[in-house]
């Protein structure tokens, strides 16, 4: 009989809402007909600069920052979040092919567990694997994507966002109503190759002068049976055309938000999110065998709250709360155990609270203190499962000095982790202090030229799978420790001629990882083998550049690109076979480029992705090598106006060269495909 796992959600929500009312009764007691806050206005808190254009923020940040606005995302030929992230410098996305394939992101070869993913200000977690499958996130209602190395310049943030080597921040659209209009509706329908059908709807409703609501839903289905070339023989001199099997995927996502804008200094967001998927797991395309029958079901529900208030010019406060529940079922009918086919269910639950206070005693000096706490538990219908529970506490103290030509910030993070399990041996308690410091200089007052540096240490506990999963996990696994060094230069300038803006950044970095934990798939893409490599040295360079021309007769050109070079070498044992070899699935050279042309009649865009050779194993042998690839895509979009409605029709052609390149060995990517989208905004 399958176990069930029920959670007292209502108690957590009741306690949180009661605490909010006691601390800030004005929030819940606001009259619904007070003077309206202009929802089209950009509000700022000390330390939070959100009114600058994205390209200006990128060159003025003390740590490498990359951003994609909603307009740029629409011109990138991307369907999922994972497709967009591939256009960031220094990012390695493991993609197992197809729409439903697992997709994880690693920043500068530090591993997916070191990249925190924030959704509207609250960090997403997976205590089972530590890896968030970014393929499940749509871009339908996303307003902005930003990726920061080290940590953000903003010291007014939750402690858990500091507890990572990098942060991917996803911001969804905020309601913006025109005068006299209280409802905004957006609907789209996307279809394409391999049975892709994806309808979506987005509704914004103004409830009162202070309150508004947003509901966004979408469904997607695809059979994913794309063709690929199978190679045979040691010299690959024989080939055949096959179709991928067990690639069907069905997903559904819906989320609802209630936003209270009480004044220019006080906001409250409450969000409910639900996602479910059913997908086949395509197997490796080994010789003369293409059978695959594994299946994965996912369900995820979370409720989160974000309250922020600026009391005066000196004090500001924010609090976050989240309840998260996750269910996952894995079926492998070809693998038998004592009771039949492998059919296991896993349950996760998390309670999370955070509070951050900002104090600015002087105009140029500010301090913040943040404290976070979480309780994460996991259960499964496996015999003798450990049923672990993890109690985690974070405390962060940060300071910042901001001047027109110098900005410096520093922080120290205290992490305390304690595990309890129902049976077996626990990993016990771990704690550590980790520092961070950054500085950005502007040598010339009249020139937008900046020089920046940062240093950061981070401490990461092994996941529940690392420690407690069957025969794979073991409680003696050491935590992973990293040290990050970065030095870079940025430049940007606005012009009055045909070129309106030009920017460029270049950063060199060195990462030292001790007791690195590397996850490598074994017989399928759900079961992983955890390997402790000991010491890894990572050196690299990231370069970005962008250009935009001035709009003349509603015509403009946009160009951008990035280039990354990195050597991620195993430095554990000088006598080992992998010593000074590049770690698995890490290309030495990678890059991307985008070009867009805006005209009164049509919007055209082109993008490319390039990855150099990689190795599927730690030994850099010829037989382990994966060849380089370049992926080209183009799109065209036409916008129409019909009364008060705006219509948009776009057509995309992906992977123009029709190459079944492999990001992961024996998991070929789709060849050429076509997508078409019709969108209506009212």
How is this structure best summarized?
The protein is mostly beta strands.
Over the alpha carbons, how many angstroms does the gyration radius reach? 25 Å
Q: In DSSP terms, counting alpha (H) and pi (I) runs of 4 or more, how many helices? A: 7
Q: How much beta, percentage-wise? A: over 45%
Q: State the end-to-end CA separation.
A: 50 Å
| Strands, count | 35
**Main β-sheet description:** 22 strands, antiparallel, barrel
**How much is the average pLDDT?**
84
What structural class do you assign from the helix and strand content?
mainly beta
Low-confidence stretches: 1-54
**How helix-rich are the residues, as a percent range?**
under 10%
The geometry reads as globular
Tell me about this structure:
- The chain is mainly beta.
- It is built from seven helices and 35 strands.
- Strand 15 and strand 16 (315-337) form a beta hairpin.
- The longest helix has 15 residues, at 9-23.
Keywords:
mainly beta, disordered N terminus, 682 residues, single chain, 56% strand, five-stranded mixed sheet
